[in-house]
């Protein structure tokens, strides 16, 4: 799978599916099964005319302490008309490609254009690396600041390693602190945090925030202050109102209503929303991850491999 698609290629595949008429609002919801011991088994099916597929993913929070990946799983791709299996892909690797591609597609429409960006990254795991590389490929970066989990030696080491990786890409980079969101043009949250990572009042008007770390109604990476101020974009209104704790917690507090969502990824791709740099408020893209995205990227990988992925 490695090297077959860049995040930009995968973003193109996602955009193509949306332009082809797929409606994310009609996609089946994710099924989640609690597993004794603290883990979770996720089932994510999707289908189009030509292909169908399903991702079976395990989320095991205790795995990193054992030297194992937090997310495991497989993706089964099927021929649509016959439902004959045609490929089996690594589910974790697919997710590691798909999620930055979704963010990259949103950022094509939301991130400030015309000048180098100051990027602040929360997290130092695979998604943080993937998002760094996706943004670096699409925008010139003036600086990258990596914020580690407060009080964690492992987190601090991870932040230093990711900053070193960014410098290897030719971008000035260093570890930093959460309050530096005030100076960022782009903030990307790729963590397992269940509580807000920073004070949303600090985000500058016109800055863009991407939050990808959670898909649970009680977990969030951004606070109510930011959500109240921001123009909010999501992959699907239905999915966000089921799973996006970043939005559901403020709604439960009475701070916002369900109509606070400004638009969807499909709206951005279709040009139904303002372009970058036109907003006088922060832009927030909240992603929960959807099965149609996995299918679109799996198909693109399969076809890029000349039908030789296995």
Entry summary:
The chain has helices at 7-19, 91-110, 126-138, 153-168, 224-229, 237-243, 245-252, 265-269, 291-304, and strands spanning 31-35, 39-47, 51-59, 71-79, 85-90, 117-122, 141-147, 173-176, 186-189, 208-211, 231-234, 261-264, 283-286. The protein is of the alpha/beta class and 310 residues long.
Radius of gyration using CA atoms only: 18 Å
What is the helix fraction of residues, given as a range? 25-40%
How many H/I helical runs?
9
N-C termini distance: 9 Å
- Given the helix and strand composition, which structural class is it? alpha/beta
Uncertain residue ranges: none
Report the major sheet. 8 strands, parallel
Strand content: 15-25%
Which sequence of SSEs, written as H and E, runs from N to C? Answer: HEEEEEHEHEHEEEHEHHEHEH
- Count the E strands: 13
On the 0 to 100 scale, the average pLDDT is 91
The order of strands across the largest sheet is 8-7-6-9-10-13-11-12
* Overall 3D shape: globular
